[in-house]
Amino acid sequence: LTWPAPGSGSVNETELFLHATFPPGFLWGTGSSAFQTEGAWDQEGKGPSIWDNFTRSRAGSAGPTADTASASYQRWKEDVAALKLLGVHYYSFSLSWPRLFPDGDAPGTPNPAGVAHYSRLIDHLRREGIEPVVTLYHWDLPLALQEQYGGWLNDTLVDVFDRYAAFCFRTYGERVRYWVTIHNPYLVAWHGYRTGLHAPGETESPAAAFAVAHNLIKAHAKAWHTYDRWFRARQRGRVSIALGTHWMEPLRGQASQANVDRCQESLEAVLGWFAEPIHGTGTYPASLRQSRSGLLPELTDAEKQQIRGTADFFALSFGPNNLRLGRILSRFGQQVSLDLRRLLNWIRLEYDDPAVFVAENGWFSDAAVGTEDTVAIYLMKKFINQVLQAIIHDGVRVIGYTAWSLVDGFEWNYGYGVRRGLFYVDFGEPSRSRLPKTSAFFYKQVISNHGFPDGDKSLEVRGQFPCGFHWGVSDSTLQV
Which is an annotated Pfam family here (predicted)? Predict the structure, then answer.
């Protein structure tokens, strides 16, 4: 029933929209990452990251950087005020590894200013009744580790990351209940070390990307065991890894078994690459081992035992950075789809009904769009309702939803060319003040209503288009 024909399975309920509320205890939040929002890239003892280096080497002095970004390092209290306006239960943010350890390795002396900054943020969030959800690594590897070891290509980083994680657990763990070790390792491995689109910008062989992924998985697993052995009993937290993916399905009218099999293999090559060792059998998917024979590292029996089951919930990232990847896969009767509900069902079926935490979800607006981001509202409403349908109709155990992101920031390869924030930031204004967008008020209402109550018309817009409004249809030569 993962890829049923229209009308033949529960995933394809004919109703277009579900009016209902989320289960009691469902968590609402929003998130950001350190590199995209903090700025202050060389202030108060912070060392350079691979992304600081990458943005300079890629575009020269005229290219966009995240040197100032959204200025969240200075304006973190305004970020917390924005969270209070939304009424969220939690805030998902990442620690800047080079801000805590400018030279990378945790045996070195931590940067006192960086340690104090995150401590203040966590304390302030808790005072305001907002749960901190903390990511240890959201792509900003200390440049020193890249230069000294070659980054994630070197398995030395497995132990280095474990020491860094242990420091964070020890320093902040009494105040943090939810940890994410690594955010979207697929993008780190494939675009950091194969295509060169992401930092550190390496264009090695496919074997290099698989070696990097291997080390990322082992680093996550070792950090999970460190938490489980030394911190869990006292701190009573939960630890996972946020896995990103697209969703593929057969083109309409082309749902042959061969195309369905290709869709399955596409999911296994992205999400399954990391999920199968951690949430599944402890090894890589069979289709990936077959198609990448000789390139994919072998997991030893000891590694399988060390890796399998090292997640206390299934953290999922589903957004434009993942879906953009699917363009190269949308061939042979397949297409990329924005169907989050189907993806949640796939996870339920593949990995024995885990508790799913949507760690990142949302879309983007053009940079020219200001505070009236209507398209973002439409897509947010669509995604959230798909989550609700997955819970109500399909029994998927989704425990939380993270609207991405809190404020506009530096959007990786897009620079400042797109916006993803619920709060508008004018990057030409030195103050970097935050203005709530219409999507922020919409999300606030969804949280207040705990979903879409039956009969509630407050979230619907009814009426007629004005006289003279033009309707049309279009196509493109590439599509036809």
Answer: Glyco_hydro_1
| DSSP 3-state of 456 | coil
Residue-wise pLDDT tens digits, 126-175: 999 999 999 999 999 999 999 999 999 999 999 999 999 999 999 999 99
DSSP 369: -
CA distance 322 to 326: 7
Specify burial of residue 477 (Cβ count, 10 A radius: 0-12, 13-18, 19+): exposed
CA distance 270 to 244: 8
pLDDT digits (tens, 9 = 90+) for 253-285: 677 888 889 899 999 999 999 999 999 999 999
> In degrees, to the nearest 5, what angle opens at C-alpha 389 toward C-alphas 387 and 390?
65
Look up residue 287 and give its two tokens.
């289709």
Q: What are the angstrom distances between the C-alpha of 244 and each of 24, 182, 300, 320, 478? A: 27, 11, 25, 10, 28
Q: Show the tokens assigned to 420.
A: 């993803």
Q: φ, ψ for residue 399 (rounded to 5)?
A: -105, -15
Say if residues 278 and 222 touch (Cβ distance below 8 Å): no
Q: Residue with structure tokens 């009814």?
A: 462
pLDDT of res. 311:
98
The SS3 assignment for 404 reads: strand
Q: How do the domains of the chain map onto residue ranges?
A: 18-452
The amino acid at residue 360 is: E
- DSSP letters along 87-151, please? T-SEEEEE--HHHH-TTS-TTS---HHHHHHHHHHHHHHHHTT-EEEEEEESS--BHHHHHHH-G
Per-residue model confidence as pLDDT tens digits over 390-447 = 999 999 999 999 999 999 999 999 999 999 999 999 999 999 999 999 999 999 999 9
The tens digit of pLDDT for each residue in 337-377 reads 899 999 999 999 999 999 999 999 999 999 999 999 999 99
Listed in order, strand segments (DSSP E) in 323-460 are 334-336, 356-361, 365-366, 398-404, 418-419, 423-425, 434-436, 451-452
Contacts of 418 (CB under 8 A, 6+ apart): 320, 364, 365, 366, 367, 411
* Structure-block tokens of residue 160: 């280095």
**Whether pLDDT at 457 is above 60:** no
Nearest C-alpha neighbor of 197 from the set 411, 475, 381: 411
CB atoms within 10 A of CB 94: 25
Q: Which CATH class is domain 18-452?
A: alpha beta
Number of Cβ within a 10 Å radius of residue 229: 9
Asked whether the beta carbons of 147 and 199 are under 8 A apart, the reply is no
Secondary structure class of 13 (helix, strand, coil): coil
Percent share of the chain, pLDDT over 90: 80
Burial class (CB in 10 A: 0-12, 13-18, 19+), 138: buried
